[in-house]
Specification:
By secondary structure, this protein is of the alpha+beta class. The chain is about 25% helix and about 30% strand. The longest helix is centred in the middle third of the chain and has 19 residues. It is globular, with a radius of gyration of 19 Å. The model has no long low-confidence stretch (mean pLDDT about 90).
């Protein structure tokens, strides 16, 4: 990472931010052994040009991980490119198109990754809801306001697919529940396709689930998706107050050993805006940084032993 020539104020902010990042206790990943994966809803990223300080801070946070699914990336990609320039020449991105209406909110989903740790395998597509033939047309009963976006990657000898979502807020939780259930059903059918690209699917993003006691939470788990133990055991939300479970990372446990006991959120806020942006209000802070905290998990990518065991067991 190269922050380059920066002001004293940004340098001081980066020192404080690094203390807040250190509190998250993110372990180092090891080449061909493990990767750190995160999902982060960066509020309206690209809608309005962010300050230089915000771009440096966002890059500093993203650089803690090997691959990140970014939610709420807007149609303008200039700020994303500014961040990638700071992260350096080894970083790459693959992203979806945006939807040009209020439901789609002109949003994209992006994956950014360090190519030294993660290789893009070639698949990148928006998930399509199931359709039935009605007359001469093929139509869906429900649509995602913002289509989930999935892409295939490889790290070590572990091939996997990341699927990132941004579930509608809408007028009622009932509408949200249907959309979430459709995600779970889509993943289940995708994994069971005869020619599925990979059955190791990691599902993440902003589900707009308020708590684990919500019916919305039950909806996402109804087709064998589970939360890794490292995230299940922590009592932290991903909003700034850390009391809402909007963001999730889930998986289908083909190789449960893939998921280490390391995971959590990065609290770049800590209730104090001033050290990063002196004189700024909390609301303005959310448009410079975000109103969501990054949620992360560490994954073991050396699965050769598990594969050999499966061969022996038939």
């Amino acid at each position: 990472m190269y922050h380059g020539k920066i002001s004293k104020e940004i340098a001081a902010g980066l020192i404080e931010l690094r203390k807040r990042i250190a509190a998250a206790k993110i372990p180092s990943s090891m080449l061909d052994e493990s990767i750190n994966v995160a999902t982060w809803n960066i509020r309206e990223f690209g809608k309005k040009k962010r300050s230089d300080a915000a771009i440096h801070y966002i890059a500093e946070i993203l650089g803690q991980f090997d691959i990140v699914g970014i939610v709420e990336l807007r149609d303008n990609l200039n700020d994303l490119m500014r961040v990638l320039n700071i992260l350096g020449p080894y970083w790459r991105t693959v992203y979806s198109d945006m939807i040009r209406d209020a439901g789609g909110n002109w949003e994209r989903i992006a994956y950014i990754y360090d190519k030294r740790a993660v290789v893009f395998n070639g698949l990148a597509a928006e998930a399509s809801p199931p359709r039935t033939k009605r007359g001469s047309e093929y139509l869906s009963d429900i649509s995602w306001w913002r289509s989930p976006y999935y892409a295939s990657f490889r790290s070590g000898n572990f091939d996997f697919v990341l699927l990132t979502v941004h579930i509608r807020w809408g007028d009622s939780e009932k509408d949200r529940e249907k959309e979430i259930a459709l995600v779970a059903e889509w993943v289940d059918k995708k994994r069971n396709e005869k020619y599925a690209e990979d059955k190791d699917i990691i599902v993440m993003g902003d589900f707009n689930i308020p708590s684990r006691k919500s019916p919305l939470f039950d909806a996402v788990l109804k087709k064998d998706l589970v939360i890794p133990n490292a995230l299940l055991k922590i009592d932290l939300g991903s909003n700034l107050e850390k009391d809402k479970r909007y963001d999730q990372i889930l998986h289908c446990p083909i190789y449960p050993e893939n998921f280490t006991n390391n995971g959590g959120v990065v609290d770049f806020y800590t209730g104090d805006v001033a050290p990063l942006f002196p004189g700024m209000s909390k609301n303005d802070f959310t448009y410079q940084m975000s109103d969501h905290l990054p949620l992360w998990i560490q994954i073991n990518t050396n699965i050769e032993s598990q594969r050999l065991d499966q061969i022996i067991q038939g």
